[in-house]
Design goal:
alpha+beta; four-stranded antiparallel β-sheet; GTP Cyclohydrolase I, domain 2; elongated
């Protein structure tokens, strides 16, 4: 088993509980870790024998374009879509960070981690 990671994917999106967040939007950073068997690709050196990072990124991007009120909802949707589109993925772990959240104080981000 191997872990394929795609880290630091940045998206400007409109997720949030407050109406202002859904109107103004903010930056989000997504890290995704996929557990899969890469032994065939290790020998063949063929993209057809592994999980295509570009295709994974496109799935994440598409899900980030769908507005949600909660990070929990965004994260679960992404994990469900990734597992659906890439059956070779045995386990997936995601971390979604909301940068500069409107919580009345200075902080870098809030985040949610999920695993499926």
């Amino acid at each position: 088993m191997s872990t394929i990671s795609i880290e630091g994917m940045e998206f400007y999106a409109y997720h949030g509980h407050f109406a202002e967040e859904q109107l103004i939007g903010t930056w989000f950073v997504v890290d995704l870790f996929l557990t899969t068997d890469t032994s065939k690709a290790e020998i063949s050196d063929s993209l057809n024998d592994t999980v295509n990072y570009l295709e994974v990124y496109q799935v994440v991007k598409k899900e980030m374009e769908v507005n949600s009120k909660l990070l929990e909802h965004v994260g679960k949707r992404i994990l469900t879509a990734v597992k659906h589109h890439f059956p070779a993925v045995e386990k997936a772990h995601i971390k979604v960070r909301k940068m500069n959240p409107p919580l009345g104080g200075k902080m870098d981000f809030v985040s949610l981690s999920l695993e499926a």
